[in-house]
Amino acid sequence: MKERLLIVGNLAKDVIDGEEKYGGSAANLAIAARGLGIQVGIMSVLGKDEFSARYREFLIQNDIDLSLTSDSVEQLPVCEVISRDNSISSSIWYDNQCHPTMDRMEVPNGLETDYDVAHLVSCPPGLARRLASLRVELSYEPGPMLIEDPRYFDKVVAGLSSFIFMNKEEHQAALAYLEDLTLSGDDYQKLLALIVTLGAEGSRIYQRNRGSVTILELPTIPVERVVDPTGAGDNFKAGFLVGYMRGRPIVECVQIGAEMGAACVMLKGGVLPKEVVVRIKDKYRL
Known about the structure:
With 286 residues, the protein is an alpha/beta fold. It has 10 helices and 13 strands.
């Protein structure tokens, strides 16, 4: 089994209804995956501000390895949630030089032996290319940045990845400017599946098998009410990746991810309580 997962992506301060919360895709995903039993590290940047100092301590308390995360921006990025419609336009992102700083990060020696899988989430293109040159299994999530900047979908990185993750908006944006996203060509020989999350409509899985592609439509898990969609996709990816690292088939990985995402939308913020994660972990015997 694969036991060590590296998350490469942003850490942020989420502001929801005026309340400050720990956020950013990397942390939401890392904390959920750690709760499901995988060893997790984050490669990112934190700020020199007081919130960042508290955040670092919070992540360490949650047993996340931060040896690859530096305090190299003045202030942490801020994601201000302005609506509950679960779209790219539902929040405002104040980058505070996070992405340019990450794009200049060097990849340390030994990373490919320290981790079994590296998940790149909204990873700046230069850093993504450097990580793709290593012999570590990749999972690739271009993220919302690709809607404005096509460089965030790098075909070389995608072709070297086992999985590509997109939501509906990101997938539509990619189709608008990519000549080939059929996944059946030689460019994607390492790819096992493209997973497109569709919110309340469930998920669509484009699965490669001997050069051909089959499409599966999987339903969502019903929820009593949606409180806040922040972090639902991150928790989905955590459940999926831990399922995969535990040797589960892709359909079951999607089911685990969907349950994590459904639990997230019923709460405020993107970090699930430990007892919720443990319940799902025990249910699927992860």
